[in-house]
Amino acid sequence: MNRSLRLFSHLALVAALLAVPSYSSDISLSGTVTDLSGQVLSGAGVSLVGAGNATTTNTSGAWSLSGPSTGIDVTPKSSAASVTRHLVLDGNRIRLRFEGVDAVGRASSGAGGLGVGTLKTAGTVVAVRSVSASVDTLLYSWNGLIRARVEISSLLAGALGPQVIDTSTIPWSRAIGYDSLTYGGQDYKTVTIGTQTWMAENLNVKVDSSWCYGNSTDSCSKYGRLYKWAAVMKLPDSCNRSICAGLVPSKHRGICPTGWHVPSDSEWTTLVNYAGGANTAGKRLKSASGWSYSGVSGNGTDTYGFRALSAGLRYDDGSFNQVGSGTVFSSSSEDDEHYVWIRGLYSGFDDLGRGMSVKENDLSVRCLKDGP
Description:
The protein has helices at residues 217-223, 229-233, 265-274, 278-285; strands spanning 5-7, 13-17, 23-34, 45-48, 53-56, 62-72, 78-80, 87-90, 93-98, 101-102, 124-126, 129-133, 137-142, 145-151, 159-164, 179-183, 186-193, 196-199, 210-211, 226-227, 260-261, 292-293, 296-297, 311-314, 320-323, 326-329, 339-346, 353-358, 368-369. The protein is mostly beta strands. Strands 1-28-27-26 form a four-stranded antiparallel sheet. A hairpin with a 2-residue loop joins strand 22 (292-293) and strand 23. The longest helix has 10 residues, at 265-274. The chain is elongated, with a radius of gyration of 30 Å.
């Protein structure tokens, strides 16, 4: 455990295909990927099943696929027709066209049919036809799981626009009566536990001295942001290295919504006591999935809908640690000029540990509703 954290106790391809035994076309597709909150996702997987092409999104959430598409078979169709009905002038070139599509699968709008008097006619031709056949599917994936399947209606060109995917893997309890709160453009679930009403999600408000775990925007969407103590309290940065108790009233709002505040150490104790005491409260407050260490599950029961996630933390040296196996919540209560009282949860342990962290570690935040 880091020395700065001291604890005491997770196509249909409607495209113009030729009536030839095998057809291939260069793929030219592009788009973007975001999560449910509209945050762009870097590193999301995008793959085209039939063609075998795959890529990942860049830091702007953008992706593109290009290259040959193979394995698309279309049965030839013959029909009695005058060939002149399918020949058009395109500048100085003669182009074969059938149902608005030319011989290489592009939309064609040439100068019209040639006169019968200038060309010989044929009784039967193998004609270019439009076909409708499901030939490929785009898969969008995140964290090794497929999150969306999209049938492709054209491989020939085009920006497909944004694709929104759900990155969450932690289910919400259906047995809990959640309320909701909108703050900073984001909706949060809230839950009443005993005499207290808590956010049932970690705070995700972007301010200075806050981070997404691993600098990934998806981590913020899933786990909320990680904050230094002065940032949480909305105090000068110097408070991370000095006593600022005189600037912290009871029910200190900090960066929480109006009518809510950063919980004090004693208010955390109230929650722990209601959840059965320090030795068992952790298991009852953890989410029912997403916790493991060395392959061994450490999930909780989420008895009260608090849904504590294994969000990890960021140490004062800039390193990230413990996502999937631990989380640490900040409080408004200082111990001295360098340390603040915290609560920690860890995979494999049922307790909600009380301890201290240096103020310059970056921790998760749960806001508590103001009460009597």
